[in-house]
Write a sequence for this structure.
């Protein structure tokens, strides 16, 4: 029997979850963002089991979903947090994460931000050599921070160019081919005790991920052979794809960890603190969105309450960013009826705000619902204020309860955002 988190949530489970949302009194929202917190806990457990090592720190990439209550669940379940900005560092602190379990990874850290990170004692991955020199100028032996250097393993570009960050020519990390400079940096900076690699998000395969890690592990082997100070932190980033359609492969943490154990067994032997930074693969299938159908126009075109504001990548690059859609009636149950080619339009005032074109769906009427699957990562975190609509109500499924993770924006919130 596969574990429940090793299979994609089935449509029936999502329909049942929406029934709970409605039963809890949230059925009349224009749109709701639903997060299954129990599933997130189970996925973190499965990740920890798959990557079991004498020393491991599993962080969740905040940029995948910065809802504070989601972060709190992750922290309470034993995860650390990965921050892509100083603001995300503060979200992590607010979520109760201890500083030594926060990994600060921004590619554009300012000097004051670095000084603050060192004062707080965060784990910091320097993105480039000039940043390392900035850290050297600010670093004192009193800082509890552990410092790593991000390496670009210079693979071939991954399947989706937009999110590929570990190929030759990528602007992230120090290219592996600059080995002399890397060697020099490690020789000069005794505080530098970590290596970091992250090659991208979605569009990657397990062999590519393993290849990136193996190349940087080989660099570590060469560095430690000549250097008295150990390199005892190895951060293999995130980048495991999520499964957005039934016919796509499901790349589990267990499969990834098994491939890593075969290719880089020493990674798991306790010489290093093994750090991971998964976002999408942990969170995407912990969330779904339901929108009411507000208008149906000839076509038919069903106008929903979320579009390019919540699904930036999907709307602008639909060939790369897939979501499945379920048509539900007013009562929240799946609609029957012969499918018709339906366009699902967002609510924003431009012709391109379309979530799906000519999608075969049972005929939709005003007041029906459309459920969008796998929305737990890189949706609300990428919210666009264009047209100034309210961020919908975010809910959590937590044990038997339906809890509010974030209330729907009020009009005052939106006015305040624009300086009101
Ligand atoms: C975005 C990002 C992650 C998370 O990537 P996922 O594909 O969501 O797992 C991890 N580390 C770094 C440095 C990132 O930029």
């Amino acid at each position: 029997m596969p574990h429940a988190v090793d299979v994609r949530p089935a449509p029936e489970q999502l329909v049942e979850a929406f029934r709970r949302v409605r039963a809890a009194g949230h059925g009349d929202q224009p749109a709701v963002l639903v997060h299954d917190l129990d599933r997130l806990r189970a996925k973190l457990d499965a990740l920890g089991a798959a990557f079991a090592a004498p020393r491991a720190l599993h962080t969740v990439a905040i940029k995948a979903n910065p809802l504070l209550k989601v972060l709190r669940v992750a922290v309470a379940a034993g995860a650390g947090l990965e921050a892509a900005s100083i603001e995300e560092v503060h979200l992590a602190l607010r979520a109760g994460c201890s500083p030594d379990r926060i990994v600060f990874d921004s590619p554009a850290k300012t000097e004051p931000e670095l000084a603050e990170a060192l004062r707080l004692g965060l784990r910091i991955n320097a993105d480039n050599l000039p940043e390392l020199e900035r850290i050297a100028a600010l670093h004192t032996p009193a800082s509890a921070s552990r410092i790593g250097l991000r390496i670009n393993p210079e693979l071939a570009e991954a399947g989706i160019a937009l999110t590929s960050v570990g190929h030759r020519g990528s602007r992230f990390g120090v290219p592996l081919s600059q080995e002399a400079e890397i060697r020099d940096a490690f020789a000069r900076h005794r505080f530098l005790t970590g290596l970091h690699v992250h090659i991208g998000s979605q569009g990657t395969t397990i062999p590519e991920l393993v290849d990136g890690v193996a190349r940087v592990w080989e660099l570590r082997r060469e560095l430690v052979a000549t250097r008295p100070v150990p390199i005892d932190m190895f951060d293999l980033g995130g980048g495991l794809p999520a499964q957005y359609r039934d016919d796509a492969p499901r790349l589990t943490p267990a499969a990834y960890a098994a491939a890593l154990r075969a290719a880089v067994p020493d990674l798991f032997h306790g010489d290093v603190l093994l750090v991971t930074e998964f976002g999408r693969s942990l969170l995407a299938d912990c969330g779904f969105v339901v929108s009411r159908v507000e208008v149906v126009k000839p076509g038919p075109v069903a106008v929903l309450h979320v579009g390019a504001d919540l699904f930036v990548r999907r709307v602008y690059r639909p060939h790369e960013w897939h979501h499945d859609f379920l048509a539900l009636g007013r009562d929240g149950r799946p609609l029957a009826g012969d499918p018709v080619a339906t366009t699902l339009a967002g609510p924003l005032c431009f012709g391109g705000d379309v979530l799906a074109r000519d999608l075969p769906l049972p005929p939709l009427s005003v007041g029906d619902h459309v459920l969008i699957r796998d929305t737990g990562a890189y949706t609300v975190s990428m919210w666009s204020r264009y047209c100034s609509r309210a961020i919908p109500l975010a809910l959590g499924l937590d044990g038997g309860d339906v809890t509010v993770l974030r209330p729907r924006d009020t009009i005052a919130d939106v006015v305040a955002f624009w300086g009101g």
